[in-house]
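Figure 3 (text version): structure tokens given as input.
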């Protein structure tokens, strides 16, 4: 926890409050007063630069990253998460310097501060002044975040993400654990596809999630699915799904994206627009052209760009809501008004027409139709989130060689990928990003249990790491049903920033059914029971649990002496996850054997000679531990 000087302007600008600190009384501005100026030009879309003055810098500043709570005037005011601490500060200008670098998504200035007058989180330490830096416990860190969530409902989502990040660091605490996670992370970054395989209970699924978080993924950037024999292409890639009955009770069918295809869309969008903007866009948005008081510069266009809306005319009709009851369309416009008021949906994309060939803005529809008398000649409104504006982009080629017509509003034949290529070209937020290829990790649990050729189909080609990106684009089985405006209208591909982790148990009989064409597209990495002993760290019977697990596994198959039960191997070892069940069993090892281990071991020994004797020997090994 770092202590910073008091600043009544929320640490975003200099303060007239000099407090009792001599440095400020003399008219100086402490570097710390700029910590939460998140809009400062020195920052980027992904990174926040801050400053903390340490009495004694953390010893591991060059090897590790930290969660730093900022405390001032007996209040905890904000967080820098996953913070790198530089040995030497970098000066940006004569006022501000930086020796902290942290991801924006893990940095936050609380709207409501946490009172710490009694120094609850500092254990009554004497030094809590301007340059104080104190270590606090992991439990206290989580308690602070929980308190912040309780009193800051508007910031709940980001605070929960910070809490999840901290929990993941706590759960993977220890040099060996982190070293192993980082080893797998590096392997995944280089191969794009890995399969974690090994004995049951070795924590492969948990490890996969830790690897994803080590890659910098939030929960929204991690996909998860578990394969099973009934899982197929329509679940994973795309397929037909029944629609709701119409007014006559008839049911139709609609092509819908599967879980993996939808995941890939989000990964592509993340490289072009903000996470919040992604959530505004429909899965299959319609692309609309709109004319704002004709072409060229005009007052209506200026108003729309400044106030985030679009406006069209026909004031003589007033507010027409039911087109079936209104027939006096004396100056035309019925089809246009119907499109604007009823067909256009929130989440659709709108392109503002500047000339017959050029657009000047791209936005997302964010509001319903509104009629406003004060709009004068253009009283029909819809709220818009402009992704880019004040641009000049010729779209004739993208629009199948067609110029833009005089009609006020109509649908365009432009793909979503083309739209976002334009956004990426002009977006200032994208060009300053330090991380245009935000990583997305898709986890397939028990990957061997599905019929892989039926699930992946033609995706066997695209999952090959050498065919990632648009160069590996393919036509899917339902390509002719993909709507115009869909990101994959011209074909599906897996973006370069998508990584796949599969998990499987070696002893499952379905492992042998995986064909070589699939196997060679993945890098296989065995997770051994002994590799994951760290998961037992902190349980009340840790030493005994590790000793019993080791003795039992050595009786199954001792990898050092290559002795054990003939026909078994390390793939049949018992992983630490089984021993985590002790907490539910009152730490009763006999119940663990009876409820969870004995049945599994009987399956291992099924069909073997003297299976009962072998099982008895396994039980003796399990019980022979002396601490």
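Below: residues designed for each position.
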């Amino acid at each position: 926890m770092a202590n910073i000087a008091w600043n009544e302007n929320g640490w975003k600008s200099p303060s007239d409050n000099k407090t009792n600190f001599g440095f400020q009384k003399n008219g100086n501005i402490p570097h710390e007063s700029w910590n939460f100026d998140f809009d400062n030009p020195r920052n980027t879309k992904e990174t926040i630069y801050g400053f903390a003055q340490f009495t004694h810098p953390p010893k591991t500043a060059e090897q590790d990253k930290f969660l730093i709570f900022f405390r001032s005037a007996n209040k905890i005011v904000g967080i820098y998460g996953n913070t790198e601490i530089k040995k030497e500060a970098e000066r940006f200008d004569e006022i501000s310097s930086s020796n902290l670098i942290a991801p924006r998504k893990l940095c936050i200035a609380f709207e409501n501060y946490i009172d710490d007058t009694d120094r609850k989180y500092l254990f009554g330490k004497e030094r809590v002044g301007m340059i104080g830096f104190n270590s606090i416990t992991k439990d206290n860190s989580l308690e602070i975040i929980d308190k912040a969530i309780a009193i800051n409902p508007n910031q709940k989502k980001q605070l929960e993400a910070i809490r999840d990040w901290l929990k993941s660091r706590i759960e993977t605490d220890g040099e060996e654990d982190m070293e192993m996670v980082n080893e797998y992370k590096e392997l995944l970054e280089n191969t794009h596809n890995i399969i974690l395989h090994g004995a049951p209970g070795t924590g492969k699924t948990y490890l996969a999630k830790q690897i994803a978080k080590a890659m910098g993924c939030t929960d929204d950037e991690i996909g998860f699915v578990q394969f099973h024999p009934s899982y197929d292409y329509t679940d994973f890639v795309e397929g037909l799904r029944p629609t709701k009955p119409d007014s006559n009770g008839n049911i139709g069918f609609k092509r819908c994206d599967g879980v993996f295809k939808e995941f890939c869309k989000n990964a592509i969008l993340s490289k072009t627009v903000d996470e919040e903007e992604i959530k505004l866009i429909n899965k299959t948005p319609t692309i609309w052209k709109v004319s704002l008081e004709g072409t060229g510069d005009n007052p209506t266009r200026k108003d729309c760009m400044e106030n985030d809306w679009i406006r069209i005319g026909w004031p003589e009709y007033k507010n027409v809501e039911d087109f079936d009851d209104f027939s006096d369309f004396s100056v035309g416009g019925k089809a246009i008004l119907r499109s604007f008021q009823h067909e256009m949906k929130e989440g659709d994309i709108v392109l503002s027409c500047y000339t017959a060939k050029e657009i000047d803005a791209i936005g997302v529809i964010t509001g319903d139709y509104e009629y406003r008398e004060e709009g004068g000649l253009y009283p029909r409104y819809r709220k818009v989130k402009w992704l880019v504006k004040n641009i000049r982009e010729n779209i004739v080629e993208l629009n199948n060689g067609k110029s833009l017509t005089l009609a006020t509003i109509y649908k365009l034949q432009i793909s979503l990928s083309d739209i976002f290529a334009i956004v990426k070209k002009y977006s200032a937020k994208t060009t300053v990003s330090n991380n245009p290829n935000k990583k997305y990790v898709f986890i397939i649990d028990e990957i061997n249990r599905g019929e892989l050729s039926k699930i992946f189909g033609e995706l066997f080609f695209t999952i090959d790491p050498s065919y990632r990106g648009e160069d590996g684009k393919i036509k899917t089985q339902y390509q002719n049903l993909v709507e115009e405006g869909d990101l994959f209208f011209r074909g599906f591909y897996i973006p370069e920033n998508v990584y796949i982790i599969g998990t499987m148990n070696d002893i499952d009989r379905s492992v042998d059914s995986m064909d070589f064409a699939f196997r060679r597209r993945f890098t296989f990495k065995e997770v051994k029971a002994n590799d994951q002993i760290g998961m037992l760290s902190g349980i009340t019977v840790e030493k005994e649990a590790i000793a019993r697990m080791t003795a039992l596994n050595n009786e199954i198959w001792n990898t050092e002496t290559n002795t054990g039960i003939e026909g078994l191997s390390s793939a049949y070892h018992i992983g630490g996850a089984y021993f985590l069940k002790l907490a539910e069993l009152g730490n009763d090892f006999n119940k663990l054997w009876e409820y969870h281990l004995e049945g599994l071991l009987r399956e291992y020994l099924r069909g073997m000679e003297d299976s009962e004797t072998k099982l008895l020997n396994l039980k003796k090994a399990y019980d022979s531990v002396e601490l």
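The longest strand covers residues 75-91.
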